[in-house]
Amino acid sequence: MIENIKLEVAKLSDIDDILALQELYLASNLSEEEKAGGFVTTPFSIPQLTEVIGQEGLFLAKDNNKIIAYIFAGGWDFFNQWPIFNYMTTLFPDLTFLDFDITKTNSFQYGPICIDKAYRGKGLIKPLFEFMRIHIVKRYPLALTFINKTNIPSTKAHTEKLKWIIIADFQFNNNNYFILAYDMNQPVS
């Protein structure tokens, strides 16, 4: 199913289709039952998408020119417009991962990632992540992200399929999150 999928760095002409995919899986649009399949929590606006596309930080998977998945990858300066990311960066001095001194300059915020449910479990996450990794490792040696502890499919996909490491957890706005880290110099195996 994923043989014919094309991986691309997002262009401005992709914005409408990115927003359409986002709407399908935004937590605020889903029932509790639907959330069990995975969800994204951060909604992006057209100006925000325009900015991250300009920074070459949005990566897509397309099937017959239809966007079926995306991964965001941005510096902390981009993500600081959301309070949860500002809070997370205050935790950096207390975090440890391998030999990294975790800072805003040597790390970036990975995610959200969103995969259309028809393509989940088909092996798409690895090549899409590897495509993003190859583009971003030139700028950042370390990837960090957080996952809501209730988003079990995302936690499993990242720790089991991509081998991310849970390095801490935190609470924000009455939600509990894991902080995960990945050494961007390591190809996905």
Automatic annotation (TrEMBL):
**What InterPro entries would the database entry show?**
Acyl_CoA_acyltransferase
Name of the protein in question: GNAT family acetyltransferase
